[in-house]
Amino acid sequence: QAQVAESGGGSVQAGGSLRLSCVVSGRAGTTYAMGWFRQATENERDFVAFINWSGDTTYYADSVRGRFTISRDNAKNTAYLQMNSLKPEDTAVYYCAARRSYISALPILEASYDYWGQGTQVTVSS
Length: 126
Fold this sequence. Notes:
Strand content: over 45%
Helix content: under 10%
Structural class: mainly beta
């Protein structure tokens, strides 16, 4: 079992920046790839970004590519989502998810992730 906890959400004006953090605590020796998803009110949860265990592979949704950057610090068991040039349509609850590194399913698939955080609200005003 592992636990995932996000932090760093908040309110910002359009064009501003936020950085989300995600701490994973699990069984020693288990390695995880990390993903970020978001859910706007009454919408489905959408894929945002993914990073593998070593940090050398990342994927982004088209809607955030070039504005968001996912990274990780394995010494701190933490993944980050740096969000720049935020837009009102980025408003959502952002969820961090972890899956064991050997899972090779497409990163956009929610079902491929084993563990989820509670979510953190990001609100972007125009």
